[in-house]
Amino acid sequence: MPLGAFKAALMGTAGVTTGDVVLISSQTASTSATVAFTSGISSTYGEYIFKFYNIHPGTDNVDLQFQANASGESGYNETITSTYFRADHNESDYSTAFQYFNLDQQQGTAYQGIIQDVGSDNDQTCAGELHLFNPASTTYVKHFYSKMNGSSAADETKNHFVAGYINTTSAITQVSFKFESGNIDAGTIKMWGVK
């Protein structure tokens, strides 16, 4: 990406085109059950990046999740195969960990976790990004990966890595985000298209 793309990514200016990267949509949660991108995902771009800014749950100790919906389908229940690992470091410096974590799916249709145990204290949020590749393809499955960091209910910083694929050859046209329970109290999610 050219330097201009990074500048636009940092500034988050809607409608700004920076060569290969375009901000398509931005949504700000305010006690929202879900944040769903139901338009704008098309064959125009080969990669879509969802960026998360200060996502704060209304309920303590919950996982942020996503799921997709294919063209012509109803409901967010596409089949996902994924893997998940994380690194933790406690605020008081008494514990650290690096481990595979059991939030992956093997041909599951549940919402896929991308960060676990986000705290609801005023100083606890999460941020990061989810990359979705070739969602408009009607030939191949749809690969994705995410990198998230957040402050957990146990006062730890947690760095989470998830990757996998949505096992459908139908075009993905919608993506939904939610916490496993409770609302998204605050935060912004932006969807970028990459040529």
- Strand order of the main beta sheet, please? 1-2-13-4-9-10-11-6-7
Structural class: mainly beta
Mean pLDDT: 91
For the record, the CATH class is Mainly Beta
- Give helix and strand order, one letter per element, not per position: HEEEEEEEEEEEEE
Largest sheet: 9 strands, antiparallel
Low-confidence stretches: none
Count of helix runs:
1
Number of strands: 13
CA-based gyration radius: 16 Å
Name the overall outline: globular
CATH architectural category:
Sandwich
Structure description:
- The chain is mostly beta strands.
- The chain has one domain (about 30-195): Jelly Rolls (Sandwich).
- It is built from 1 helix and 13 strands; from the N terminus they run αβββββββββββββ.
- The protein has one helix spanning about 5-10; strands at about 15-20, 20-30, 35, 45-55, 60-70, 80-90, 95-100, 110-120, 125-135, 140-150, 155-165, 170-180, 185-195.
- A 9-stranded antiparallel β-sheet has the order 1-2-13-4-9-10-11-6-7. Strands 3-12-5-8 form a 4-stranded antiparallel β-sheet, with no helix packed on it.
- The protein is globular and about 50 Å long.
- The relative contact order is 0.32.
- The model has no long low-confidence stretch (mean pLDDT about 90).
